[in-house]
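2024-03-11 09:14:02 DEBUG pipeline.ingest accepted 1 chain
2024-03-11 09:14:02 DEBUG pipeline.ingest length=575
2024-03-11 09:14:03 DEBUG pipeline.predict start
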Amino acid sequence: MRVTTSKSKNSESFYITKSYTNAQGKSTSKTIRKLGTLNELSKRLNTDRDGVMAWAKEEAKLETMKYKNETEEAVVMIPFHSNKLMDYNRKKLFSGGYLFLQSIYYGLKMDSVCRKIKERYKFEYDLNAILSDLIYTRVLEPSSKSSSFRAAKQFLEPPAYQLYDVYRALSILAKESDFIQSEVYKNSFFLGERNDKVLYYDCTNYYFEIEQEDGDKKYGKSKEHRPNPIVQMGLFTDGDGLPLAFSIFPGNQNEQRSLKPLELKLLQQFGCQRFIYCSDAGLASEDNRFFNHLGNRAFIVTQSIKKLPSQEREWALDRSGFKRLSDDAPIDIAQLDAEDKQGLFYKDEPYTTKKLHQRLIITYSPKYAAYQKAVRAEQIARAEKMVSNGSFKKQHKNPNDPARFVNKVAVTEEGEKAGIHYYLDTDKIAEEEKYDGLYAVCTDLLDDDVADILKVSEGRWQIEECFRTMKTDFEARPVYLAREDRIKAHFLTCFLALLHFRLLKRSLCNTYTTEELLQNLKDINFADIEDQGFMPIYERTPMTDDLHQACGFRSDYQFITKRKMKEIQKKSKRR
């Protein structure tokens, strides 16, 4: 509320007025209280006009506080008529889960990033609104860009831009992808510390519903064994599984070569200089290890025991020389008691290749060995069934195919045509059994504690979960865009959506699973009650309480006036 004055020929009157939006959506005001004329108030307060104005402003503040208290505590009475039809073309249901993602979006200063980009171009559309809606809809209702635009219209704050603006914005986002990634990384420290002393790297690929190669869309080895062209993504995450940076490269390119260009961006644009690189064996080539041995960097990577030189492989398979991880006590893993069968054991030795002096660590887990043995027993049973049937179909792309244990030999009888005889290959089974429970890690941290090294290596599951979330929950594939720049922008929005979601999940202390949090966000909706305000139509739970606590606002009142909803929307942008 504010103070207004009205002057006539002989006097000046003071009023307290309130601004509001009427039913037609236009701003207007009404008088709440007449304070009096200047002459009356000067005599009563014994002051001049400035003193009267100061007093009037204090009265306006008191009226504002009184109004807020009355409206917040008031019982809202809204009439409904059983014989009155609904209005045409009037939305009743609105999606509100985006408000919690919006809290993260503005906490990352994404609006500031968009303003910096706009200064370099001459476009007129609202890049901030478009990018934020693309992120929110990728989490809440993943679909094509046109479907995302329609989904955004269900938000409490619907888009004011048009669909063609979205496609134009994709081109800009693609050009500024590296800038956005580096700025978001720097701004993420406003929301808490980043564990950037350990960086995980991995690659995956995404398919397109097309049959011909085009640009980066090439035929390659699909993770999902699909016969479609693919593009590949390289992703860095920090030690807590928060996305750091990504790159897109052709589907037929060796993924080993994707590391250096992206890591150079981290070194030059992100300011990351001292960290431990961690990856699986597929991205742990000699060149990649050597590259991460330079400067203040180090590496911890998995190592295929089967691909070790014969001398090191023989040492790795030797069941002697192991120590208990918990206390470094020597132990014979062939004679473990019930308690030891729940533990982990290791041995290590220097391992020198052409370019590097490394440390090779071999671990043995009785639980993992028992699991592998149980799985193989089922596969052997299926292989025996194949042998008894006399035929089988080998799946060359599946390393766990039971048919790998079936072999064949041609036998002949005198004067008769050679026949095929199938048999169970016990030598193959015995060879696999040698590796049960064993796992290898290579590192250039020659003096660090083994337990610390293994803890870092075990954290690789987090980057695998990132890919699973993007593919399954955010439906990043198949990709329905054709232009290279728009494809890159699509994966940028997927990357940003993943970062927003995992930051929100972290703000809840990782108490809830990905599935639980996603479903909860999708369930948060509001109903418009006769243009008077909104009613939450979701179930209040401990999770919704935690979400409100983490994001600094509450939307779980029995009824929310339009003024209160605007305050909630503002609070979600002020984190």
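2024-03-11 09:14:41 DEBUG pipeline.report The two ends are 26 Å apart (CA to CA).
2024-03-11 09:14:41 DEBUG pipeline.predict end
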